[in-house]
Specification:
heterodimer, A: mainly alpha, 78% helix, 0% strand, B: mainly alpha, two-stranded antiparallel ribbon, 1% strand
Chain lengths: 218, 480
Amino acid sequence: MVALEHVITPIAACMILTAFLIVELRRLKYSAYSYIVQSTLLVSIFLSIAVLAPEPHFYAWSISAFITKVVIVPWLIIHTINKLKAEEEEEPMVPPILSILIDIALIAIGFWLGSTLPLPITEPGFKICMGVSFSLFFMGIYGMTGRSCAIKQTICLCHIENGIHLMLAVLAYASPVTVDIGILTDAVVAIAIMLYLSTLIKKVTGSLSIYRMSSLRW
Amino acid sequence: MIAEITTIVIPLILLLGTILSYFTRYDGKTKASLTLIYLIVVCWSIYVTYLVYTGNVIVAFGEEFRVDSLSALYLILVSSIFMMCLLYSYDYMEQYVENFGLNKATLKSYYSMLTITFLTLYVMSISNNAFILWVFVEATTLTTVLLVGYGRSENSLEASWKYILLCVVGLTSALYGTSLIYSYIFNVTGDPYKGLLFTSIGKYISSVEYETSTFALLMIVIGYGVKAGIVPVHWWLPDAYSEAPSPISAVLSSVVTGCGFYAIFRWFTILSPPIYDSFKPVFLAIGIASIFIGSLSIIGQTDLKRALAYSSITNMGVIALAMAYPPLGIAYAIMHLFNHSLLKATTFLATGNLEHVYGRRNSLHGVIADSPVLGFTAIASVIALEGSPPFSMFYSVLGVALAIGDIAITLIYLIGLFIGFIALTYMFIETIWGEKVNRNMKNKCPRLMVLTPLLLLTLTAILGLYISPLANMCWRCVPR
């Protein structure tokens, strides 16, 4: 039997790569496609654990993650991008080189936390997953605060949720299914509301840039 | 039977209210049905609070839902504020949709969202499950965000975007912290339920490694702190409060913001002293920063609702500061949350009356000459909010000062509050008694809109004159 960490480690590394693409690509559709790839990788991690650990709980996690993260949420995002004819995000606040350096620093912090924080797991593969989870969380927060496009910020929120879902799967997989359903439903509703608000913002201001809406500052 | 009614029947009634208000025509019958539904929930909350006050604890679904003193206090607070806001909304919102050029039919979605927010806060109050609590705190953001942007203006949309962005990001960190603690307890005990329920988390949290529990609890404080509007994660609050319709500002500033601290209370009242002690400096720093930034930001404001929003940041700071001095400080923090919620809702409704009558909420002067009742309600609610006797806020403001027990910190606390008191009171004195430039009342204030803030004000005066039941309930929330 193949060791679990040998399967999980390359998938987790690919997730980091997709995280990088989600945050840095300026064409919104490419960013959304990267998110679909990342979610598919997340589902494949769940399936690997289900088969190799073996943990039957993870079959249910795989199915629910596939339905929400690979089908529903991407469909909502791409539908909104098409509807608003939003091709590319506006000029980001942070220059590209600096942004890439910030991403690398956040990945390093994420992996440092994943390896140093005392966690109730012993398998090295799971430790790597925790590092990936922390990195996705921090990069998502950076993407949400450092980018001005409303849709880009929404995609970055989805990205944070992938990080949390990975952590929940690794650490809290035995939690009752109602908890998983509640969290996923909440996430899908939050994305739907943010996309609806993006549509209204575009309709009222003619732009998706949040930095242009600054009339309320102080 | 009582447990079933509290956990199944009442939420179903509220769900029915949500569906009813969305799918039926907006007319007198719908209004009457909604009022009846809200009244049933208020009456049941009063009954449940009475049961808890007399020493009972209501438990259902294997302790997934549990009504103790803290839940009962929040339940009665949520019910009374929603009842008043519903009654207030009937006249206010008709004028509001007219002002913003919206279709009257959109009011159906307004009442539907208002009722679903009531439902989410109700379920949150009775939950004993850390994940269900998180789901419903998050749900309050999602249900209120469209109400903040109800006017569809650029400002209201900007306010709603800031609100959802910051609260959703903040709450994801609270979920992260909750999951870390859950997983640790699950791995130590092997039981998937022990890390879920607050009643059992308290027993096992000491088994979590110190670094991990501190990191997780810090994520929880930051996460729920965003919702509570504490400094430095308060940016969404002034915009959301000032741009929302006044009844929604009342709901946001009281029970929706308060639910952030409710969740923090739930977590921190189960902690043992060594873990709690490591958070005292955090609460102290957050408290002092929030009090001063909130108070200083009031100076120079011209928008009444924005000034009240900054006063909320000050009061959230008072609660955070009190949390640094357990166990007495926690009791007064809970009491302050209760009093502040009631009085902030009162003040927003009173200010909403001025906005309704004059069509604006800044540069108002000499209101008392046009309407003594509206002028009196506004100034009385502000003075009560600042902690004047005989209103109940007086006891919590004084109680926090006594709980601190350190002269230097007490002095800093009082100076911070005093700055806020002077700035806000001066602003309202100018509004009520300032020299009138021109008389330009646009609308008359309907009777129900005048009555609702007055009723809430009377309630806080009664609570102030007869404080012992409230003090008793708050003291019972604190573990000893």
